[in-house]
Design brief:
Layout: H1 13-18, H2 25-38, E1 43-47, E2 50-55, E3 58-59, H3 60-74, H4 78-89, H5 94-122, H6 124-146, H7 173-203, H8 208-215, H9 218-232, H10 238-259, H11 263-292
Antiparallel strand pairs: 1-2, 2-3
Amino acid sequence: VLWVPADAPYKSVKEYIAAKPADVRPMLERVRRAIATAVPGGTEAISYQIPVYTLNGVPVLYFAVWMLLGVAMAGSLYDPAFATLGRIFGAAARRPITYLTLAGGFASTVCWPLTQALIDAFGWESAYLVHAALLTFISAPLHAFALPRVRASADAKSAPGAPAPARVLPARGQAFILVATGLAIYAFIPSGLAAHMLAIFGRHGIDPSTVVLIGALFGPAQVAARICELSFAGHLHPLIMLRFAIVLLLAAYGILALLGFSTPVAALFAVMFGAANGLVTIARGAVPLALFGH
């Protein structure tokens, strides 16, 4: 098991490799030589008790790993999943998309505490290995062998109670560019705000324990909004749902701007932001399907 105790006294990459099991050391040495060949002017060191490689002060591997993770996430998160559901279910894919986002909302609620428990018990390296094993032996086989390879017929009917769009637009031209641009611009909001929201609240005087509780409202608010969409709004055109979600998010910002950063206002903002994001997530898959047919 590859994990680093918090007090591991590594002073160099050589010491780091020497502390690993004998059958792992040759592999680590090959990686070390490959890095030296690829980045001949790089510098190796130990930071946070793990090897790091920099080129002119820039952490090369750090950025390389995050670029690789970005490519992997782009091919495995909601957007490709929505495309797959659209291929399988056609016009009836909105309800499966909602079910998927419900599962995704609960997954973060469950997996974050479990991941933290793994880190506390075995260290972050072992937690990564557990995640890699789950992806390799459960997720990858399910994607490879369990997903249907069929494609919905062009005349597949929409889900019961859902109105058919007046016409299907071509997946090109002004309408397509506007939809793609709007959804892409929105993607910057949750990705940026979710990462900094708790820190912003903390810097405005809310104590850390309360900030954590406020942050915990975001996930349940997403799930609650998706349950409401599934129960009450399935007959509405997804564009109406998307417009409502955007207005809800703008109202959340307006309340925060007008009333300031008190604990109740911050909690209300987190709930409204979570609900809006939960609905927009569904709309990301349902709106292109309704407008363009795929």
